[in-house]
Design brief:
This protein has 204 residues and is of the alpha+beta class. It folds into two domains: 4-104; 111-201. The protein is 18% helix and 23% strand. A five-stranded mixed beta barrel has the order 1-2-3-5-4. Strands 6-7-8 form a three-stranded antiparallel β-sheet, with no helix packed on it. β7 (149-152) and β8 form a beta hairpin. The longest helix is centred in the N-terminal third of the chain and has 16 residues, at 48-63. It is globular.
Length: 204
């Protein structure tokens, strides 16, 4: 079960990602505060479907002991809009009143996995598990040019699963994955290849 928190203060946008995630100070039912990276529902391409995909993927990853940030359901109230100076984000929050998906902010010192970086031996076994997970949930959004991994040494966290379970919105030319087809997205997966200079570190 994913715990629920209430949005209290809009802190700032988190980079310029496709879903325009925001850092929001939240409060749980006991009054404890926590910083949460929130993917506001109105900023997710698939809306409520993406919200559910994020939630189910996080729960499954936790069950499989994969490193995901702690998920929370964020209740956003219209009153939050008043404290936001940027009109773009005020409008995004206004259109996302209600339930939203978020994850507790990761500890400092982590970095985004560099583009075309090889997989070190230290995390190769974990990388293979992440690769298998992305196959299971049909997640096309952990690519070499968009890793969606935070790391430091042997510590990794995976995130951003609103496009997982892509079979729920099949596109033209889609094939069921159990036929052995429909997995072309894996050619761009972070663990299936890197630059020529790093070919010796491929894991598959």
């Amino acid at each position: 079960m994913i715990p629920q928190v209430h949005a209290v203060t809009f802190v700032r946008p988190m980079g310029s990602g496709r879903t325009r995630p925001c850092l929001i100070l939240c409060e749980d039912e006991r009054g404890n505060e926590c910083e949460v990276v929130v993917k506001l529902r109105a900023g997710i391409e698939l809306g409520e479907t993406g919200f559910l995909c994020e939630s189910f993927a996080s729960l499954l990853a936790q069950d499989l002991d994969l490193p995901v940030p702690a998920p929370v359901i964020v209740v956003v109230d219209e009153m939050l809009v008043g404290g936001i100076a940027a009109p773009e984000f005020a409008n995004l929050v206004r259109r996302s009143v209600g339930l939203n998906f978020g994850t507790k902010k990761l500890p400092p010192g982590l970095n985004t996995w560099p583009k075309d970086r090889g997989i070190p031996v230290l995390v190769r076994a974990l990388a293979a598990e992440i690769f298998a997970f992305d196959i299971i949930v049909q997640n096309p959004d952990r690519r070499r040019d968009n890793p969606n991994i935070q790391w430091k040494g042997g510590e990794l966290y995976i995130y951003d699963h609103d496009l997982a379970f892509s079979f729920v919105v099949p596109t033209i030319g889609w094939r069921p994955p159990w036929t052995g087809e429909g997995l072309d997205f894996l050619q761009e997966h972070i663990s299936t290849g890197v630059s020529r200079a790093a070919k010796s570190t491929w894991i598959v």
